[in-house]
Design brief:
- By secondary structure, the protein is mostly helical.
- Helices cover 84% and strands 0% of the residues.
- Helix 2 packs antiparallel against helix 4.
């Protein structure tokens, strides 16, 4: 604890505050930039996690139809991730996406207020 107090005293005594303040602000800006890109990546991952089952099902059924087969309800029902199972999971996943995205934006805004103001 004494070393910390002596270090602060030395910084104040030699008027090194602007130098150390600029270094700390530079580190905080780099940290905020890293956090921002990480949160955007997190939001994209959540979005793709929610939409992938729907896209795969649509592509599977479209390919099946384009190959000349007839798509009937019993054939669709046999699919492990068929449309009969999608509405519940889709509503849950897509309902969570806006909340997660909003949370990420709030975190970014919070860190901008703390570190850049």
């Amino acid at each position: 604890m004494n070393e910390l107090v002596y270090g602060i005293r030395a910084v104040k005594l030699f008027a090194w505050e602007p130098f150390f303040l600029s270094r700390v602000e530079k580190q905080r800006a780099a940290e905020l930039s890293s956090l921002k890109s990480r949160k955007y990546l997190d939001a994209l991952c959540v979005y793709f996690w929610a939409t992938t089952p729907v896209v795969i099902s649509i592509l599977t059924f479209t390919t099946y139809i384009l190959l000349g087969h007839t798509l009937t309800a019993p054939k669709v029902r046999l699919q492990p991730s068929g449309p009969t199972q999608l509405p519940g999971s889709l509503c849950h996943s897509m309902g969570a996406f806006p909340m997660r995205f909003h949370y990420n934006i709030l975190v970014l805004h919070f860190f901008q207020i703390i570190y850049l103001d």
